[in-house]
């Protein structure tokens, strides 16, 4: 893939009202803070707030002239905040055209087929040929798949060798699922990997009693594990968020990490965490405690 991906990006699901509302001003301030921090990659989707995240991003992007933008397709918005899957060429193209209108752009850098876990036949027949044509037409620069499950994503990489994939929540300090098949496969095919969900819906940002884990209240076992991880990081003067954001880069296939932000303060905190030095000794200590697969350290070293 010729596209240079910034290593840190902003996920815009919170700007669409994920879990709680975000004001127009906070949304604008979030994008402005990202630009001020040198963070220029923004990931969005029509399903984030039924188009709201794209609209808000589109209004704010003129302040970020060098922005790299990814959005998603495969689902069409309908009245009443309903969403329907449509993997036809017409549906894929209509979804992108609507996204471009909301984003106020003539093209985007990356177009992901979104949550196509159970649509393999339709992807093969219509959807993937459609996104490749959109790439050929210059409406997108790179194409791939974005989802929350490693196994179907690995199957798509094996069949199509796409430019890029986004895996959310399956490569974190608490979940190593993507390491089994997906990441080694992407390393072989040259498919760039973007990792989302590094906080597993917030638990690894702040393991508070009311923290969420994978979109649900955190189970006691996972809450205890996150607090153990935080305590180990503290021994080395490193915040838990810094280790969580930087962990995916231990694998060479990972090109970028996107973190959801709903305020300028969250952007600044995450940018600082991304830039915090993490000593090699901490990764070894986390491996001893089971938060980092031992073999991953060998991959990173080699």
Automatic annotation (TrEMBL):
Q: Which GO terms describe its cellular component?
A: cytosol
From which source organism is this entry?
A: Actinocatenispora rupis
Listed GO MF terms: oxidoreductase activity
Q: Where is the NADP-dependent oxidoreductase domain?
A: 7-285
- Name-wise, this protein is Oxidoreductase
